[in-house]
């Protein structure tokens, strides 16, 4: 496996490869990321992964400085998974001048849910992803469903800019107790780690209630949020949304997603569950 740190090196190595599959990451990789590499291998060759902690998507007071940088360990995991190339630029390589041109996602996708609590986050995500797409020129790019709102922003970016890239969504990998795998799980203390699995259980309870015919979505979400607060969570939101628009469901919605985000101590966690054919 080859590792490159500059755009020039990356472009020279790829040389216009037509079938490239791309997996962008911020590093500190776990089994969930490895599963995305394995998924990418089924959709294209060579497989390129990027490792870049993007300052544009971190707001004031967020964890940019303490976000783990584990390049050597990450490269070992990527090599074992069959990744062909790694692009690991520093900030100066990605942003050689101040990034005054930015991508502004539509507010209907980006300003609610996580966007209501992380001002500018999805603009930072969309901007760096567009830059990475320009550098790698992939035919396929793989993103995890755990960051569901991010996934929808990227899908819409590709659609509106007419990019010749297929976005493949990878299922969320979970720990044995249901907690979604995340690099931020390492921040959790022992007691917080036990509490963390409750988020998935509350989302699953909402999904089960909807599948059983319950239609008072606001009550379901409020009940889940109350349970989490009683267990020590500081809740940002628990919401049931149309999976395509991320707006409140309508009778025409064919897929729903229940999403939640909140804090345990100093650690913010997110999760979601999709519901197909919810009104049948």
Q: What is the rounded Rg?
A: 19 Å
Residue stretches low in confidence (pLDDT < 50, at least 5 long) are none
Oligomer: single chain
Beta fraction of the residues? 15-25%
Task: Determine and state the CATH class of the largest domain.
Answer: Alpha Beta
Helix content: 25-40%
Overall residue-averaged pLDDT value: 94
Please give the domain count. 2
Shape descriptor: globular
Helical segment count: 11
Strand ordering within the main sheet: 1-4-3-2-5-6
Number of beta-strand segments: 9
* The CATH architecture of the largest domain: 3-Layer(aba) Sandwich
**Secondary structural class:** alpha/beta
Under CATH, the homologous superfamily of the largest domain reads HUPs
Give the end-to-end Cα distance, rounded to a whole number of Å: 48 Å
Main pleated-sheet profile? 6 strands, parallel
SSE pattern, N- to C-terminal? EHEHEHEHHHHEHEHHHEEE
Enter the CATH topology name of the largest domain.
Answer: Rossmann fold
Keywords:
three-stranded antiparallel beta sheet, Pantoate--beta-alanine Ligase, Chain: A,domain 2, 280 residues, Rossmann fold, six-stranded parallel beta sheet, 2 domains, alpha/beta
């Amino acid at each position: 496996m080859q590792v490159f740190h500059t755009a020039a090196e990356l472009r020279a190595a790829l040389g216009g490869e037509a079938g490239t599959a791309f997996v962008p990451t911020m590093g500190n990789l776990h089994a969930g990321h490895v599963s995305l590499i394995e998924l990418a291998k089924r959709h294209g060759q060579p497989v390129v992964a990027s490792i870049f902690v993007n300052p544009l998507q971190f707001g004031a007071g967020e964890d940019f400085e303490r976000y783990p940088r584990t390049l050597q360990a990450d490269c070992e995991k990527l090599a074992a998974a069959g990744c062909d190339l790694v692009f690991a630029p520093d900030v100066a390589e990605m942003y050689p001048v101040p990034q005054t041109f930015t991508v502004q996602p539509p507010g209907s996708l980006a300003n609610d849910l996580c966007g209501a609590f992380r001002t500018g986050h999805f603009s930072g995500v969309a901007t760096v992803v567009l830059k990475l797409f320009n550098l790698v020129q992939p035919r396929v790019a793989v993103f995890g469903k755990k960051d569901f709102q991010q996934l929808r922003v990227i899908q819409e970016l590709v659609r509106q800019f007419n990019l010749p890239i297929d976005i493949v969504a990878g299922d969320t990998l979970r720990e044995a107790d249901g907690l979604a795998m995340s690099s931020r799980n390492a921040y959790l203390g022992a007691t917080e780690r036990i509490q963390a699995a409750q988020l998935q259980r509350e989302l699953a309870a909402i999904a089960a209630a909807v599948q059983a015919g319950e239609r008072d979505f606001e009550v379901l979400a409020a009940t889940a949020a109350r349970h989490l607060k009683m267990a020590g969570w500081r809740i940002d939101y628990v919401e049931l949304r149309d999976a395509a628009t991320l707006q409140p469901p309508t009778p025409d919605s064919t897929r729903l997603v229940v999403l939640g985000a909140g804090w345990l101590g100093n650690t913010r966690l997110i999760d979601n569950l999709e519901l197909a054919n919810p009104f049948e």
